[in-house]
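user: can you give me the structure for this one chain? tokens are fine.
assistant: on it. calling the predictor now.
[tool input]
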Amino acid sequence: MAEHPPPAFAGERYWARPLAGFGDQAARLVVVGLAPAAHGGNRTGRMFTGDRSGDFLVAALHRHGFASQPTSRTAGDGLRLLDSYMTAPVRCAPPDNRPMPAERDVCSKFLHEELGLLADARVFLALGAFAYDCLARLPALREGLPRPRPRFAHGVEVRLFGGERTIVCTYHPSQRNVFTGLLTAAMFDAVLGRCGELLEAVRG
């Protein structure tokens, strides 16, 4: 991918390297995706940047006050996340955007350490079943999950024992999901609105 970018990106220098998360270190909302997109985050060097998934996600975050601007085009475009942070369980762009369990397991320690640094995190927005499963495997969250663990579905909320942290599920804002109508802007706005309500409840 780094050596042979598509024609639209000819002449650009790809940084085919692992990506860390991005956002507010004091974030209470943590958005957990899948992996860097081959020609999005992998190309630009920042999660959810330079592709249509990033366009969809950041525009929605901006509408709900979690981002300083509605676009995420390049790593130097001035975007700031407000009370939010975005990351992914897999740190490198996987073939066909389909991470394997082995990739998940290798990268899990990085997600674990990263979330450990986000001490104020209260709501985890899981973008897809893969993200939900990865969050549920983390020791810090696994112990608080109800048994049996609720199945993934859009809009599902999983309140962790203690009541101060919640996992909220939605479909990943991939180009395929958005184009087929599996996920619409209205659906995503409803989920983000619910995240805001949960954060307000914790604050209160």
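assistant: here you go. The first helix runs from residue 41 to 44. The longest strand covers residues 123-127.
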